[in-house]
Amino acid sequence: MSLTSSPRVIKGGLVVLAPGGGAVRSTIALQYNPDTLTRTYQVQGAGGEGGGERAQPFRLKGPAVEAIRLEAEIDATDQLEFPGSNANAVSFGIGPQLALLEALINPSVDELLSIAARAANGTLEILPPEAPLVLFVWSRSRVVPVRVTDFSVTEEAFDTQLNPIRAKVSLGLRVMSTEDLGFAHRGGAVFISYLRAREALASKAGRASLASIGLERLP
Fold first, then answer.
1. By percentage, how much of the chain surpasses pLDDT 90?
2. What's the pLDDT tens digit per position in 142-168?
3. In 3D, which of 90, 61, 53, 201 has the Cα closest to residue 139?
4. 95 touches 164 (CB < 8 A)
5. Nearest to 40 by CA among 164, 195, 175
6. In angstroms, rounded to a whole number, what is the distance separating the alpha carbons of residues 198 and 1?
7. Closest to 16 (Cα-Cα) out of 142, 96, 101, 94
């Protein structure tokens, strides 16, 4: 028996809950963690603009709008080396994994048929059903509700039946805050936990001295 000191690497991924944050419908683990994760913020502020008038102190009126972008690779090569225990990979390649991701951005057929039936019955205003609640998971300390804003797939290799066996997926995610979901929604509670975890992490950064930035004292 060989021993290794290599740490076990956890995977990032997505957890799909029933609308409103009910039962877990599916868990999507990334086959390979991406090398980079891009996060951008739009600050939600008020005041601070002066112009020709007196400027007001800047105020934060809500949490910043956070967007996340990542690229993931999906590859069936390892499974195809053992076809006897990977029947789905042999029959469909990585099609099932891609279809699972595509389900994040499409209503189900049953939902579409339900809307069509209500429209045929003369319903004047048809409110689309609430989509499942999606959580982006990037370690225990980063679990946050998101909405998929854009999704693209580049299929790079195929088997003899033209099933994709290797692809790159690009995901754009918008973090859903309490401004979007409210405090009573389960997703809103998850967002608050996410912010608390960020605040706790910031407290561990330590405090720099004035001397470290070239000051003996403040003016």
1. 69
2. 999 999 999 999 999 999 999 999 999
3. 201
4. yes
5. 175
6. 41
7. 101
Residue 95 lies in a domain: yes
Looking at per-residue pLDDT, the higher value among 134 and 21 belongs to: 134
Range of the domain at 158: 34-41+62-107+143-200
The count of structural domains within the chain is 1
Residue 166: inside a domain:
yes
- Amino acid present at 49: E
Tens-digit pLDDT profile for residues 64-88 = 999 999 999 999 998 999 989 999 9
- Other beta carbons within 10 angstroms of residue 137's beta carbon come to 19
CA dist., res. 178 & res. 63, Å (int) = 8
Q: Bridge-partner residues for 169, per DSSP?
A: 72, 153
**Is 94 inside any structural domain?**
yes
The per-residue b/e assignment along 109-124, b for 16 or more CB within 10 angstroms, e otherwise, is: eeeeeebeeeeeeeee
Give the global pTM.
0.86
d(CA 214, CA 207): 15
* Residue 115 token pair: 């809307």
